[in-house]
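Table S2 (text version). Query chain:
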Amino acid sequence: MNARKFQKATNDELIDVYARAAVDYERALDAADSRSANRAQDRVTGVYRELRRRAATSLLLPLLHSKDEIIRSFVATHALEFAPEHGEPVLLWLAARPGPNRTPALYALKAWREGTLEFP
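Corresponding structure-token output:
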């Protein structure tokens, strides 16, 4: 999906694309397919930008309860921009667990606390 298609999508469609793209990102990383991982991350970023343009980023917050850690990781990191009280606890939880989402959570928290975290 490109920016024009994001603009035409409903909020529900955007949330669905965001969640699927996060899962696609994780699968691509597991398969060592950086090209597909980059495309998936671009979709996550594109959806986030469109939701921000619509002032609808809070619609992502229910995804913090997803069964997929990668979805929670993306949402928690983005939530640091608009709802840090929701994003930070999830990132702290991810950072305390072993697994592939630990390091990104640690770095997101570190950059956010230092004021260097940039949002798309």
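Notes on Table S2: The mean pLDDT is 96. The chain has one domain: 3-114.
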